[in-house]
Amino acid sequence: MIRNLVRHGVLACGLLFASHAIAQDRAQPRLPTVELTAGMHVIQAEVAHTYNQQSVGLMHRKKMEVNEGMLFVYEVPQVRCYWMRNTLIPLTIAFIDNDGAIVNLRDMQPRTERSHCSSKPVRYALEMNQGWFNARGLKPGFKLRGIPLAPAVMP
Q: Residues 117-128: what's their mean pLDDT?
């Protein structure tokens, strides 16, 4: 009986990893959006809440409209790192603290596995077309509005 449980557990893990790998072979369907504001600028941000949504992110997408982005929402503030494997468009990522303030920005090149990390623990990350923040003069310390500011779960 234990052997069957182990075999089924291994099979279940294998299927989980296989489904995750398959999901990274194509763009995920558009996720629900939230409207964010950065001063007078309005952003339509898809919200990635789940591990699978966050793992796929903007992979395999060929373009993103000017004021569109993807917001990654986490329960626990942590140093977060991103890479661009299978991502086809250049992006800038804003790492955002619990209050909606930009902590730091990083430009990311397509199809690389170089890590781009937050400079301190954050709850959110917002990916936009590369240069979007710079073109609008948005720098660390600037506060974005509209982010779903649910209380953090402390580790």
A: 98
